[in-house]
Amino acid sequence: MRTFWEKEFTCPFCGHRFKKKMVFFDAVKIKSRDIDLKPIFEDVNPMLYEVVTCPNCYFSAFDRDFETIKIKGEETEKKLKKLLEEARKKIKIKDEETPTEAIKRYALSGIVYSVLNQRKKVAISYLKIAWIFREMGKPEDEKRYLERALREFENHFKYDSYEESDEPMILFYLGVLNQILGNRKEAARWYERLLGKHRDSLYAKVGRERWQDLRRS
Ligand SMILES: [Zn+2]
């Protein structure tokens, strides 16, 4: 079975065309999951390929989003241009699928989504960085990014309007990230909310197990 294919992208910010290595959906196999549902992959790790970064301007987004993202308004465009310019001075992106390169790309997608006010995707970018640090065996860096992801999920829940169907996922991460970070009371509060409102969702099923672990520990 083939694992990779090549896709051509056009950057929605600068118009540059480039090719990127992609993973076939069928090639991804999940062996197990951690407490926060982080997948442990067999063979290929799709997290190393998920973010597309324009090699010319460093505009970055998840592969599903990259070409369809709308950058609205002059202010947004200016802000993004400035931040990407600063990023280009600070870091060099290589066309490699290593954990270190993937972290850089998720950091860039975090910047882009934050300028575009897509806080859930900022949170997910940081969560993925934490997960890669976990795979690298760097617990302090992992914790730093779990905290950042948690802050973004909190603000998303508090200030943004989101799809009702997203709420179980958001509540689950508010619970489980607090749990991992040792905030037991906060974790319990979010799990109660998740179980009270969305008892039939898949996230509630996992949330119920985590909540029981929390009460037992
Ligand atoms: Zn570009």
UniProtKB/TrEMBL annotation:
Coiled-coil portions: 66-97
Keyword Membrane included in the entry's annotation: no
Pfam families cross-referenced by the UniProt entry: DUF2225
Keywords, ordered alphabetically: Coiled coil
InterPro entries: DUF2225, TPR-like_helical_dom_sf, TPR_rpt
The keyword Coiled coil is annotated on this UniProt entry: yes
Name assigned to this protein: DUF2225 domain-containing protein
Lineage, highest ranks first: Bacteria, Thermotogati, Thermotogota, Thermotogae, Thermotogales
